[in-house]
Amino acid sequence: MPIASRRTTMTTSTQAQTTFFNLHVEGVGYLNRIRTVDPKRGDAFLACNINALNGPADDVSYTRFDCRVSGQEAQKLVRKCQQAVDMKKKVLIGFKLGDLWTDTFVYQKGDRQGETGVSLKGRLLLVKWIKINGETVYQREAPASDDTDTPAPQADHATATPSQEEPAPTQPNGYAAAQSGESAGAFETPAAASF
């Protein structure tokens, strides 16, 4: 659902008001293909793919977003998921994207070689929660004014219902306990001591 917000900017010589309309996408999806992109022009940046779930829980469809990870907290959390993604574990996240756009490309190999494809792109602004192989390892503490948070689903997406909610874990989980240390994917947030 689009969320309109208003920002005011000031210049040094005169005062001007500019209104911005922000389009955000919030959802649940699988985190994949975490990588550092080093463009020919500009600075390197962290990127990932999110295969977002949509449709009925018993017949899920997926929409792939190619994302630039924005914001220090989102970058930190995505980097901590790198090892789990590389190990082919299922990393499911609650997310918020912004600055959506499309990009066309030409398939270079495979059955569709030479065909034009379309990629949905955006900026990953916020990670709300993370589950690795069905176990909640991170739950963001929602600010008092953020009443649109998507709770982590309690069950697998095939059996989940929209009314199910899962509280933040109270004990360390096996993944974080077994994988201690920053480079091993441990998460040290107050919201989930185990992540």
From TrEMBL:
Annotated spans, Disordered: 141-195
Protein name according to UniProt: DUF3577 family protein
